[in-house]
Specification:
By secondary structure, this protein is an alpha+beta fold. The chain has one domain: Alpha-Beta Plaits (2-Layer Sandwich), CATH 3.30.70. It has 2 helices and 4 strands. The chain has a 4-stranded antiparallel sheet, with helices on one face. Strand 2 and strand 3 form a beta hairpin. It is globular. The chain starts with a strand and ends in a 27-residue tail after the last strand.
Amino acid sequence: MYLIHARLQAPPGACLPAEAARLVLALARPGERVEHVTAHPHAVPDPVLGIFVVAESLSEAEALAEALCHRLLNTCTTLAGWGLSAAEAPLLAPLGHGPLRPPESPSNPFDLRRE
């Protein structure tokens, strides 16, 4: 299973509709194996749809998410004027690094030495 982030470009002053994730899931065809969709309307710099899809490869998952988003943008009147800037797997820092790390390290390098 792959997580694909679809970055959407909004027209000036527009907000991602609350039902965006539900609409994407409703447009997914059974053979596309979309498992879950989540919306991040306040992501910076653009709103993001997180699309969890089962696929044979990353490129297949990204292509499927891109096609699904184009289907959404072409059929949903509440998204008139929106665009898709990218549909790709996000790069995540390993646990304990970047914004996911705990505020303080739970271990001290000195704790790891043998005495």
